[in-house]
Structure prediction request, 329 residues.
Amino acid sequence: MKSKIWGVLVGTAVGDAMGMPTECWSQSKIENKFPNGIEKLYPADKEDIFGRDFAAGKITDDTINMLMILDMLKKNQGKVCVEDYVSQLIEWNNNSGVSAYVSGPSTLRALEKISKGVSIEETGVAGTTNGAAMKIAPIGIVSDYKNIEQLVKNVYQICLPTHNTKIAVAGASAAAAAVSYVVRGGNSIEEIWNIAYDAIEAAKIYGYDFPSASLRFRMQQARNILQQENKEEKKVLKRLYEEIGSGMETIETIPCVFTIIELANGNPWKAAKLSAEIGWDTDTIGAICCAICGGMNPDFPDEVVKTIEKENEINFKLLAEEVMEYYRE
Prediction:
């Protein structure tokens, strides 16, 4: 299973780095800038909305937070200790120099409350964005989807400080369950959808009841688009962007993620390119769906992996070996 775990970790970073240059761009702006599509890693553009001067292959908070979760698991022998994660998050937010340019609103709001002494049971009650799902892949690795209740409970512990809402917990649970399935040998896209729905159902008992549309219904609507357009990529991406939305809210991100997984037929490099081209929250959509696809098919261009490792000082092989120790059958 180590190669599949490696694929999940690499997939998170590849989807993140591919989507970084087009993050917060409209679909039409991306089409004008890249009329032939996005076929490689690019540096941040001079029109980057955050003013970032990132080199090609640079990761953002999606992968950075995933690495924090990995470190937390390593420190606690594969068990979730949310206090350790929060400590790392606070340190990174205060000292990284880039947090303000890459962190999402739910996380920043929660960290501000934590700094004022608010309990972590209360700091995430308005966190509805995809910041929970983007980093959750390691929880899927160490949790077995066949015990969906325990998997969701583990997910909730991570969601608690920043994304303690029903919609965020549901979206993160769907992503973690899909990761859990693929690293344990699953390769059926149909089953990925079903397992995601099971996780959403199991997650109903967790999180603050912040108003939200039905995630399952929105996912089904997104899949209907895929089928109605006969999987024609440009048409599907256009309708997802216009009808479902591809922004940072969980209710938009997760339907796009699972639809792109099927549109790419589980190919992680294809999923990375489609995510980078969809518009809006390109890096997070890419990070989540490429993690899942990477677990199904751990195959990426060597030069892309080397560039990301060098640019961010990451050793994915070592990380995969470490988290493998806590893998649960």
Q: What stands out?
A: The chain has 18 helices and no strands. The two ends are 10 Å apart (CA to CA). The mean pLDDT is 94. The CA atoms of residues 187 and 296 lie 6 Å apart.
